Amino acid sequence: MAHRREVKEEQAFLDLALVALDHMRDEARSLRDSAAVANMRGAGDLVERDVVMGTALNRLDQLAIGDQSLFFGRIDYLPDESGQADSYHVGRLAVSDDQLNPLVVDWRAPVAEAFYRATGVESLGLTRRRHVAIRGHEVISVEDEYFADANGELMLPEDEVRSATEEGLIEGGLALGGPGALLAALGRARTGRMGDIVATIQGEQDRIIRSPLAGVLLVQGGPGTGKTAVALHRAAYLLFTFRATLERQGVLVVGPNPLFLNYIENVLPSLGESGVTLSTISGLVTNVEIRGRDTEEVDQLKGDARMVTLIARALRTRQRPLRDDVRIPVGRAIVVLKARYTADAVERARRRPGNHNQRRSAVGRELANRLAQEYYQRFVREGMDEVAGVSELADIIRSKTEFQEALQRIWPRLSGQELLHDLFGAPALLRAAGKGLFGENELELLARERSATLEEIEWTKADAALIDEARILLGPRRRPRPPVKLGESGILDGIDLDSYQGDVRAAALREAQRLAPAQSTELDEAEFVTYGHIVVDEAQDLSPMELRVLKRRDLTGSMTIVGDMGQATTASSSASWNSVLEVLDPRREPTRVDLTVSYRTPEEVLDFAAPTLLAASPGLEPPRPVRRAGFMPIVEIVSPDDFAATLVNATRREVEMVAPGRVAVIVTGRRVDEIIAILTSNGIDAIDPRESESKGLGADLVVLAAEGANGLEFDATIVVEPGQIASRGSEDPTRTSPRGLRTLYVAMTRPTRRLAIVAAGALPETLL
Predict the structure, then answer these.
(1) For residues 105 and 93, what is the distance between their CA atoms, to the nearest angstrom?
(2) Cα(91)–Cα(108) distance, integer angstroms
(3) Between 476 and 487, whose confidence is greater?
(4) Which of 521, 537, 659, 707 has the fewest beta carbons under 10 Å from its own?
(5) Distance between CA atoms of 349 and 363, rounded to whole angstroms?
(6) What is the arithmetic mean of pLDDT over 195-199?
(7) Can you spell out the DSSP letters for 335-364?
(8) Nearest to 576, CA basis, from 260, 211, 204, 218
């Protein structure tokens, strides 16, 4: 009876809040419409109209919550001295009535902290915390938690008997906020897209979300601890709290691959924030299309910090004097560009500050002026030529084809792609740059056949970081840059970015890149967009060279670094968090926090995977689970002849058991196509979610490469041939490696409910 009364009470409040939300939307539409028809008398009016229009459109975007719940909680405080007790509803955004009386407070507002932080030990002045479950415009359930007052008494209504459900939760003294709401959210079927956790944020997560903006915050968290969700909610919180600063400086969220970005892309818009840039590391490097893939050995070499020195040396080898003199026709005579002149010019240019392409102009001016002086002394002063002066002569000499060709040999104008292509395509250059730095066998691995054109090169993910490094040394090539145009939207249409400086220019570049990625080719490739705050997920898998790409985009030193060293699976991943911080070189002492509780991954799965984590990373402890799924992992070892039939049966079983949830079959990358073929030939619709024409992670059944599974979650997971996964990175395919075991650990900890193993080969010792 009490529960029915509370549902009715919250339904009445929801109806009131929805009316107020509609009123707020009407006001925003009215503001938009009035701006659209306003009379423009001058430039000032145009600017004012654009500001008002932008404000109205942003407001409408924030108010468009779709079918998501308007609010999800309520907090009641102890009465004050006058007997007045404050009460607040907590939701996705702040809602006020037509008299501006607050009805719902934004979850990021300081007053909402108690909803997430209050515990039985520290109530923060609350008497009750209520979790409200809403579907569409209907309240479907209410869960109340009561707190003791200063005398240790619970503030319970007279007709209520306090009760709590323990179904699915593990007894262990963990202080969970809203255990019923949390369990319901965790038990909900996966959709193929990550959802926000704004209604079920726990205390340890909230402390991280609301950490100060300044400095580097490093978050270590095992599977299921919600580290990705925490990082995204932190981005939303910082934008809400420091909007004036971060809207100008920008916020960047970096993920490991495009599949992961597709998985998380709905979270921030659901929290009312759409102005955040999402990208992979290689996506930050403009004008480089990633079409190739390196072997693990080459990927590891290209990610090594020694590549910084190799690229710098490679560039220095391109700054070289002529071996022979060059004859240049000028007027009635021939001037000679002597090799010794070029040696002097190169030596002086190397000592000058600035980037390579910038110093090229100085080399050209110096050599042209020297030749012009000689010509002037010989012919002009004696009246044999009527050229006005030395500067005019120098311009004439610089325009000569012979001079330009000589200057290109002495100090070539280069792009990052050109430098890297020349380096890897010329073994002699590679040996000269890598002498004493890399072994002969390593240099042979880096060398590749030279392509006829840059367009033919299949650049790899690791190449992108090296190109970025080269661009810093080279600088812009000073090629003409047309105005940035953003299509039919009209935003920044016709704006010449060269006319702006500082923060204004940086903001324009960010907006151009975010709203029209296809137009990024119009920006100078050596011009970097910087951000006021950077969130990096799965940071344990970034190489030192990729971390340097991030550091170059860091404007203020404010970063949130999220990951788990127990899930480091790439060949070039950093060895420890200390090595990550060493590359990033924070401007102030970083803060490290650990997420220790796994909300998503059930106890049965974590216990099964724990020996693999221990073998791969002995210094790491697995997170503590809060729930049981009620299903023990299933291990099926069969003969090679029975493998296909067993896999098909296991897949059908898991799909049926978790319907309408999502199932992933995880296997080594080289066997993805084979497994898809086995399943589809037996009438099972399985896809590779990386294919652009597919449903992606929204499909009921996907086949994933183990090395690309980081950060994803499914209702059920079938891990195929764990022995092959565990041998990843080992020279002997019959032996495990630490990186292979970490990859296997990632694969086994993706499910929220069920885990199955199917193998025709030997299992790793950690699973025996």
Answers:
(1) 6
(2) 9
(3) 476
(4) 521
(5) 6
(6) 71
(7) EEE-HHHHHHHHHHHHHSSS-HHHHHHHHH
(8) 218
In 3D space, the residue among 714, 717, 646, 637 whose CA is nearest the CA of residue 678 turns out to be 646
Query: How crowded is residue 325: how many other Cβ atoms within 10 Å of its Cβ?
Result: 14
pTM of the model: 0.82
Token pair, residue 452, equals 């006829």
The per-residue pLDDT for 268 is 81
Q: Do residues 255 and 537 make contact, with C-beta atoms less than 8 angstroms apart?
A: yes
Residue 407 is encoded by which pair of tokens? Answer: 């200057």
The phi and psi torsions of 563 (rounded to 5 degrees) equal 175, -170
Cα distance between residue 623 and residue 564, in whole Å: 11
More confident residue, 343 or 178: 343
DSSP class of residue 699 equals S
Which 8-state DSSP code applies to residue 56?
H
Q: What domains are there in the chain, each with its CATH number?
A: 2-163 (no CATH), 205-284+529-597 (3.40.50.300), 319-410 (no CATH), 603-767 (3.40.50.300)
% of the chain at pLDDT higher than 90: 50
β-bridge pairing 333-337 and 326-330: antiparallel
- Measured between alpha carbons, how far is residue 223 from residues 119, 140, 220, 568, 721 in Å? 24, 31, 10, 12, 21
pLDDT tens per residue across span 553-602: 999 999 999 999 999 998 888 878 999 999 999 989 999 999 988 988 99
Question: How far is residue 532's CA from residue 245's CA, in Å, rounded to a whole number?
Answer: 8
What would the two tokens of residue 326 be? 């060059």
The H or E element containing residue 705 is strand 701-705
> Which DSSP state fits 661?
S
Asked if residue 70 lies in contact with residue 104, where contact means CB atoms within 8 angstroms, the answer is yes
Q: Is 180 helix (H, G, I), strand (E, B) or coil?
A: helix
CA Rg value for the chain: 31
